[in-house]
Amino acid sequence: MARSSRSSSSSRWRHCHPSYYLKRPQRLALLFIAFVCGTLVVWDRQTLLREHEVEVSKLYEEVTRLQNLLDESKNTGDDATSELSKNGVVPDDPIDIQRREKVKEAMLHAWSSYEKYAWGQDELQPQSMNGVNSFGGLGATLVDSLDTLYIMGLDEQFQKAREWVANSLDFNKNHEASVFETTIRVVGGLLSAYDLSSDQVFLNKARDIADRLLPAWDTPSGIPYNIINLAHGTVHNPGWTGGESILADSGTEQLEFIALSQRTGDLKYQQKVENVITQLNKTFPADGLLPIYINPHSGTASYSPITFGAMGDSFYEYLLKVWIQGNRTSAVKLYREMWEKSMKGLLSLVRRTTPSSFAYICEKHGDSLSDKMDELACFAPGMLALGSSGYGPDDSKKILSLAEELAWTCYNFYQSTPTKLAGENYFFHPGGDMSVGTSWNILRPETIESLFYLWRLTGNKTYQEWGWNIFLAFEKNSRVESGYVGLKDVNTGVKDNMMQSFFLAETLKYLYLLFSPPSVISLDEWVFNTEAHPLKIVTRNEGQSFVKSDEKHKPIVRLRGRKEGRSG
């Protein structure tokens, strides 16, 4: 979402040239600068070369670059997307192109390793060069990677993966599946591939797996059980929760199931997941903070920790994103209201270290706070930035400023270790700033995700530099001959033996988009699920009816044509 109001223009995707995003006076100003500079170079070029050879060379290159931008703009329109007109960001900087290519090459290395050693299985173990079925044999890495392949223009790889989905993906598995993980990775991945490509096979498969998940919501309160057998439909919760449902696992299916209802015309998916929000809102606290355990029979929260890290995180993320997904209409106003309450609660958990004043989000246990923050909670800076423009001017600035402070902390999670990769969580100490707690790194994306949002919404290239430094640390420490692995310890650099599917779905996708023009998966047109799968924003109105599933689905987007004109 851009910081100004969303444009309703349906023609934005036609305009791909960088200078299209400059208003006419800006283009004329650039033309004047280019003309004057070019004249100076011609008028006294030899004298300048003698006295300032290096400076002139750089000046001439810059003039040429500006002239090229102006030449490219001749056949484009004058309207600017909100993201660029607000930030003045000129896309396709040569450094961005180079870095984007490096990220794309990393994706190819990860994908080709998966293709060679684990094709069709859930995840690759790069060190032992074999695949494992962590999710019951649903091809998790393959499905999770579909939209990344598409966005990067890796057409051959995308088509091969598409054929596997069409011919080999089978959900009739006698497997106890996580409703949450299956929704965000598989349902989300398939819907995103459908929205990008308009290929019906992805929608059909998404509906198949969603139908198998639906019995999880058949509880007295409508709060779902978190585990389901895909073949038999039997449901239960993990034993270690004492029979309770987990907040994040129960409140992070709304984007996917609402999208599925919109794409198929069948309301049952939306009704199941929106009933969860209705139930939680009945007893929603004033500070908007819910404990991580919810009773599926009563629908009320149980005594348990409050956190923006593991088991809490994406519930709060989806309150904001369902509002964005519905284009911020009155039909989705409740989600924004609940989210703003939760952000008041988040503010009450923010503390700062000494001596460096790193902002962090505490965890809450009863009435006491714990000075601990998960790397998982590093999604919060991006969430705050994304939601900041829904406030009035003063509050918007405060929320965005907090987002930037938290992002600095999260970046220092990386910078504070010998490998420059973050541990799983951190503890904060008076006079001692921070120290790593659980010291493994499993290729998580949350900090990069937040850097992506902050760059998109502020235009500050510092966030690109931070992201690039993190990418280089992954390349140095996690790249092996047959893919990428996590670290058992970020202090020693000892490697593990797993390439998580979200490394391809999220980490590399957000890195690629961090160095792509903001028109590629525009935040005015798309909303990312918590697995970084972009879903098309569709305006919701009160009492609307959906398009019937047998009506032809029009292609949602062509990113400059999938085979032509893409520099990534």
TrEMBL record:
Cofactor(s) required, per the database record: Mn(2+); Ca(2+); Mg(2+)
Transmembrane segments: none
Bilayer topology annotation: Single-pass type II membrane protein; Single-pass membrane protein
Job description of the protein: Class I alpha-mannosidase essential for early N-glycan processing. Progressively trims alpha-1,2-linked mannose residues. Produces Man(5)GlcNAc(2) from Man(8)GlcNAc(2), but only Man(6)GlcNAc(2) from Man(9)GlcNAc(2). Has difficulty acting on the terminal mannose of the b-branch. Involved in root development and cell wall biosynthesis.
Subcellular location, record wording: Endomembrane system; Golgi apparatus membrane
GO biological process: carbohydrate metabolic process; ERAD pathway; N-glycan processing
Main location: membrane
Bridged cysteine pairs (disulfide): C378-C410
Catalytic activity: N(4)-(alpha-D-Man-(1->2)-alpha-D-Man-(1->2)-alpha-D-Man-(1->3)-[alpha-D-Man-(1->2)-alpha-D-Man-(1->3)-[alpha-D-Man-(1->2)-alpha-D-Man-(1->6)]-alpha-D-Man-(1->6)]-beta-D-Man-(1->4)-beta-D-GlcNAc-(1->4)-beta-D-GlcNAc)-L-asparaginyl-[protein] (N-glucan mannose isomer 9A1,2,3B1,2,3) + 4 H2O = N(4)-(alpha-D-Man-(1->3)-[alpha-D-Man-(1->3)-[alpha-D-Man-(1->6)]-alpha-D-Man-(1->6)]-beta-D-Man-(1->4)-beta-D-GlcNAc-(1->4)-beta-D-GlcNAc)-L-asparaginyl-[protein] (N-glucan mannose isomer 5A1,2) + 4 beta-D-mannose; N(4)-(alpha-D-Man-(1->2)-alpha-D-Man-(1->2)-alpha-D-Man-(1->3)-[alpha-D-Man-(1->3)-[alpha-D-Man-(1->2)-alpha-D-Man-(1->6)]-alpha-D-Man-(1->6)]-beta-D-Man-(1->4)-beta-D-GlcNAc-(1->4)-beta-D-GlcNAc)-L-asparaginyl-[protein] (N-glucan mannose isomer 8A1,2,3B1,3) + 3 H2O = N(4)-(alpha-D-Man-(1->3)-[alpha-D-Man-(1->3)-[alpha-D-Man-(1->6)]-alpha-D-Man-(1->6)]-beta-D-Man-(1->4)-beta-D-GlcNAc-(1->4)-beta-D-GlcNAc)-L-asparaginyl-[protein] (N-glucan mannose isomer 5A1,2) + 3 beta-D-mannose
Family: Belongs to the glycosyl hydrolase 47 family.
Catalytic residues identified in the record: E181, D313, E424, E446
Enzyme class: hydrolase
GO cellular component: a single term: Golgi membrane
Gene3D superfamilies associated with the record: 1.50.10.10
Keyword set, alphabetical order: Calcium, Coiled coil, Disulfide bond, Glycoprotein, Glycosidase, Golgi apparatus, Hydrolase, Magnesium, Manganese, Membrane, Metal-binding, Signal-anchor, Transmembrane, Transmembrane helix
EC identifiers of the protein: 3.2.1.-
Protein name: alpha-1,2-Mannosidase
Ligand binding (Ca(2+)): T530
Molecular-function annotations in GO: calcium ion binding; mannosyl-oligosaccharide 1,2-alpha-mannosidase activity
Biological or metabolic pathway of the protein: Protein modification; protein glycosylation
Organism: Juglans regia
